[in-house]
Amino acid sequence: MVLPALGATTTAPAVEPEINQHYLDADPERWKAVFEREGRELYDRRAQIVDALQLQPGDSVADIGAGTGLFTMLFAERVGPAGRVYAVDISPSFIDAIAVRANALGLGNVVPIVNSQQTVDLPPDSVDLVFIADTYHHFEYPQLMLDSIRSALRPNGRLALIDFRRMPGLSSSWVMGHVRAGRVQVIDELEAAGFKLVKEPLALQGNYFLLFRK
Ligand SMILES: C[S@@+](CC[C@H](N)C(=O)[O-])C[C@H]1O[C@@H](n2cnc3c(N)ncnc32)[C@H](O)[C@@H]1O
Description:
There is one protein chain. The chain has 214 residues and is of the alpha/beta class. The chain has a single domain (21-213), classed as 3-Layer(aba) Sandwich (Rossmann fold), CATH 3.40.50. 34% of the residues lie in helices and 21% in strands. The chain has 9 helices and 7 strands. It has helices spanning 21-24, 28-35, 41-44, 46-52, 70-79, 92-104, 142-152, 173-178, 183-192; strands at residues 60-64, 84-89, 110-114, 127-133, 153-164, 196-199, 207-213. A 7-stranded mixed β-sheet has the order 3-2-1-4-5-7-6. The longest helix has 13 residues, at 92-104. Bound molecules: S-adenosylmethionine (SAM).
């Protein structure tokens, strides 16, 4: 079942207009070779990243910016048939491919959702954990997305955020040009939106990994 996007909620300008243009009608096979390849830190360390989240069978998780489904599938195995994984992405072709992949793997607990740029389109108080990997810098409306994530989280729910380190003089020119905000600014934005940083569960190199509570 693919749930439709509910549509835009503001006409305010995007902070990163056009950054997602190439994903909207993306070829999932082409991007799978980019996101799920050895040498990408999040792929190489995917097992440790999932372990660090300490998911329990029966948990309800939202993978926001699910891409080709790298983490969605791992979460679905971890939370088991009593749990649920919402694979949320603005790209209909990515979400269609995730639905096919989950079906082929017999993962009936994956719920694919095509969301809008401004809201996760999840029911209120529906998830224990929101996971955002290399996607926060793609949010065109970060404040609106954070408001809708906060309302989708259950009381005391957790938000895990992984994104690129952005260090002038050290990070690549691609990172400096592509990634809007570094770790400190991201923490400020999350705290302003009502999240509290609780820990950094795993040390990564090119990325940082933050865990917040609602
Ligand atoms: C760099 S990819 C990361 C994919 C995946 N999280 C991973 O780490 O393999 C960023 C993804 O975020 C999606 N995206 C961008 N803005 C989004 C938003 N506001 N809500 C949901 N998905 C979004 C894009 O379509 C793309 O699939």
